[in-house]
Amino acid sequence: MAELPAYKNEKLSFEERAKDLVSRMTLEEKISQMMHSAIEIKRLDIPSYNWWNEALHGVARSGVATMFPQVIGMAASFDEDMMEKVGGIISDEGRAKYHEYQRKGDHGIYKGLTFWAPNINIFRDPRWGRGHETYGEDPYLTGKLGAAFIRGIQGKDKKYLKAAACVKHFAVHSGPESERHRFNALVTQKDLRETYLPAFKECIKEAKVAGVMGAYNRVNGEPCCGSQTLLVKILRQEWGFDGYVTSDCWAIKDFNEGHKVTRDAAESAALAVKAGCDLNCGCAYGNLIDAYNRGLISEEDIDKAVIQLMTIRMRLGMFDDPKHVPYASIKYENNDCRKHREFSLEVARKSFVLLKNKDNLLPLDKNKIRSIAVIGPNADSREALKGNYYGTASEYVTILQGIREAAGNDIRIYYAEGCHLYKQSSTDLDAPKDRFAEAISAAQRADVTVLCLGLDATIEGEEGDTSNEFAGGDRKNLNLLGLQEDLMEAVYAAGKPVILVLLSGSAIAINWADEHIPAIIEAWYPGGQGGRALASMIFGEYSPSGRLPITFYKTTKELPDFHDYSMENRTYKYMKNEALYPFGYGLSYSKFSYSNIRISSEKINPGESIRVKAKVKNIGSFESDEVAELYLKDIEASARVPRWQLTGIHRVHLKPQEEAEICFTITPRQMALIDEEGKCMLEPGKFEIFVGGSQPDSRSLYLTGTPAASAFFDVEGKATQMPY
User: Fewest C-beta in 10 Å: which of 172, 565, 620, 639?
Assistant: First the structure.
């Protein structure tokens, strides 16, 4: 009887087994495993495997799966527990689909267990087309929600991964999309360490993410997928990352074709591998034989990469008896099951942000409404539900369908498209404003109008996925496109109450609407159950609780140049003008008060944490969730620091007149600042804490009418340099 090879011995560590397996491969076989479509090696019982799979808000591009709201919408929940559960459902469905595909001999793209999600880039500028894939503009929120999602994706088994998450795009990446294959992002050490890296570190150090994807662009002259600074010095050496690194798709050929840092494809491939990029999404690594023959790379460099890749596949149980892999027993019937769809409905409900509700127009009372006009290009749009990187929902409930279903037979529903999303007419032969008359007629006849405007992922998204009319996926400004603003004014002029529903993945400058429209909801891209979730909110089946994970600016004129990666005058931390709707803002049908803030000590030494407690009370008449936010302000800093920064979140559910105590901990690292040289320093001085349902800025106070509770503490002693 032949001796069992070490790589098949389940008693050995995955690393030992991977090393043994790689030692048995030829150079050509090793290289064949370093591209996203890895070929079969029959003699070693290695099946073919395609590494490329997507799962931003559901298993994507692989047929039917539960479709959650787009990531920016889920970020508005400020809910870590929810995000972990979302990740768990996605990986359950990914496992269910993977094993069924395996049984059918289908090893194709989007069929594996290596999910290239989440996208934890910082949404630094609202014009970036891919911002709706992210958790918003704040590093703390992004890190917490991204890490929770990863924990759900990867599971809790001590030996095996349920699926392998992959954080992207490392690092300093947020447009411009049309220049990403040649763009050089210039960033200071302060902004790098304060803004662009913390979420990646959180996901790597705390959530133990399995994979990292490099970005297309250069950072300070180095292409990200071949950066010694990012991939070697920071990722591997400083943070101790032990997973795999993949390039973005066809990013390595950009080294010579776009960035011009290498002379040819062989040099590009060698540069990437020597920097620790193990996997090539694309075909550039087909040139590694040439690079090896020219002495640009050693077989040892290649071995290191392939060992990393094989270790991941082994951690996923691909070389083990399925009976020993707990996740291999997940049934295909788990995919898109009723329980998962019901949870996606709950997630959508938590994602909506009520921006305005003058005179408590919302919620609507069905007993007092006889007719509703549902108007707008996004009213009956599937595209406005999906976002990008989406799967196929088994049911799409548009806003129109959701309202019609919830309204029942006793309320008349009038529907009119009103206008195209961005064109001047609905068809090429029609005159401009060809659908206005119908929309106005509907609005005149209805007791109230629900006006559905905004964007969709056909016009904000990734280069190549969107219309070239709109800057390669980015937006040129923050205005409503086409005739939407005109339609809104015409519908408003009909004289009936208007509820504006924005379906978008980014901020829109709705200054006129803020002045005139009585009720405004940001609904994002709410997923397959989105219309049902929104209708139940409009009719008061629950109270909204979402918070903006991004700033809604009044105009692009107040923003720096899109190409400028400095955080000066960007996001809530450094912006100079007043926001239209601030980061962290969102209304409820109820009202809450914050009081009795207590801290563990008013004076602490460097290295000590502060514990914060406060009371939150529902002083309104609706049962509701409330999102409490903790902000920290460094009053006596020696360097440029944020106005204040989010340092804690806590979601609580309260009945009318019910009160709860909420608790936070502020760590020494959260008290530290990043100076202009990029050093992390904990300085002595005074700090202020704010606990409330929003930022402590004057605009949030005006919009909510609810002041934050505040307290002070002092850090004593000497300035201390801290680890990042």
Answer: 639
Q: Which of 649, 667, 685 is nearest to 723 (CA)?
A: 667
pTM above 0.70, yes or no: yes
- In sequence order, the 6+-apart residues with CB closer than 8 A to the CB of 300 are none
Asked if residue 246 lies in contact with residue 224, where contact means CB atoms within 8 angstroms, the answer is: no
What's the pLDDT score for residue 424?
95
What pLDDT shows up at residue 544?
A: 98
Cα torsion angle, 637, 638, 641, 647, sign: negative
Q: Helix, strand, or coil here: 438?
A: helix
Structure tokens at 156: 């809790």
Question: What distance in Å separates the CA atoms of residue 77 and residue 543, rounded to the nearest whole number?
Answer: 13
**Helices 139-154 and 80-103, packing angle to 10 deg:** 40
The CA distance from 187 to 651, in Å, is 34
Mind telling me the catalytic residues?
Answer: 248, 460
Percent of all residues in the chain with a pLDDT value above 70, rounded to a whole number: 99
Question: CATH number of the domain at 6-328, out of 3.65.10.10, 3.90.1150.10, 3.30.280.10, 3.20.20.300?
Answer: 3.20.20.300
CATH topology (fold) of 592-721: Immunoglobulin-like (2.60.40)
The CATH architecture assigned to 338-548 reads: 3-Layer(aba) Sandwich (3.40)
Query: In the chain, what percentage of residues exceed pLDDT 90?
Result: 97
